[in-house]
Amino acid sequence: MLSIDPRTGESRGPVAVEATAADVDTAVRAAHAARKALADHRTRARLLRAAAQLLEKDGEAIIAAAEAETALGRVRITGELARTCHQLRAFAEAVEDGGHLDVIIDHADPEARPAPRPDLRRCKVPLGVVAVFAASNFPLAFSVPGGDTASALAAGCPVVVKAHPDHPRTSVLCARALRAAAAEVGLPEDVVSVVHGFEAGPALVRHPLTAAVGFTGSVRGGRALFDIACARPRPIPFHGELGSLNPVVVTPRAARTRAEEIGAGLAASYTQGLGQFCVKPGLVLLPAGADGDAVVRAVVSARVPSGPLLDPRMREAFLAGARARAALPGVEELLAPGEEDTGDAPLSVRPGVLSVPAARLTESAPHSELLDECFGPVTVLVRYRSAAELEAVLGMLDGNLTASVHLAADERDEAATDLVSRLTELAGRVVVDGWPTGVAVAPAMHHGGPYPASTSNSTSVGATATERWLRPVCFQNTPDELLPPELRDGNPLGVARRVNGVNVASPAES
Q1: Cα dihedral sign for 397, 399, 402, 405?
Q2: H/E element holding 18?
Q3: Global pTM?
Q4: Is residue 510 pLDDT above 60, yes or no?
């Protein structure tokens, strides 16, 4: 695998070897053999904390490699490393008390009605080896040491990561840190491994010992792997984040009273990371007329950065996609996207803003291309003249990670409530008077949405991301010595439990 400079397209030299089918088989079997070592949730917490510490220790080398391979900038990568380490520690904290296991114990009750109740004890158990597909646009937070890996390890599942070809050197360095962390806490290094190369992906999904998949990437690539996972003799869960338009609605009253603020915020949001965020606002429903025009002026007059995209292939796809959309009848280039040689980065692109009347979008099939994500720094303004036109456009949208609405300060009436409710049908996160770029790592965060944003109803960010890699099992009338430790009398692991309908937090109460 070659490390490529996205600024020039030139190779920085070989970094890793593409995995063969035999290499993938070796990695998955080694991970499967190591799974029992992750049985204790307290050891898993120590692993995650050790991983964060070693990533920070090697931070200078990791940041330099990631910046060189992605051109995302040192400030962005430094912040992403901090987020990644925070995420690892957050999962450690989330699983330390065992609450993620959802332990429920109902003691036998011969007097229960309508029928006597046996002794029932329920908890969640790990699925097994998880295949994680690293993302292009987040070389740390959604890649080798990212949320899928962290949540799978937290759940007790060993991980085999398919590295992204855009940042192979970064992947090697991060894998080294994670494997060293495993050894440091007395675990087999093979609880985490990394494979490289295009063919490794399908081989990972097809492997009979792979128990689940976490994917972040394109609709085309994700759907192909999703179909493989479903077509296996024994289908497995595929938790994929595939694509999102992230619609934004600006109400007429908001445009009238907050034009400058909304326009400047949109310019900053759709160009953040050169438009290479999965939550980039790609479609903005803006009222027609003078009030909406004021927002447009604020958007196009804002200073927006030019720069290289993650790799030359993505650059060509962005330029072709932007040109095709701009060429549609009735589409106006308010700010023309295109190539822009910045000297030190000859493969740079400049951001763009397109505009189209809502009626044109809803009446013409070719314009449906505007409802597909265009990865990169471009956004489409859809100018609506009535509530009916607004609803017609919303009715054409697929599922999204986010949906946002901008209201006037005093716009808290029934119509606003109905609009928020309508957007809830379209997305996994609804943002009011803000912008979707930026996903907080917090217990309440949900990063997912209806298809094609996600292939499941789970989240890839936040403490509940561990739920993807667990399944519930109920034990009936099982002798204490045969139960998992989490379910035994006396609560030897001290996990949080619900016993006979009462939440208990200490062994003495269990």
Answers
A1: positive
A2: none
A3: 0.94
A4: no
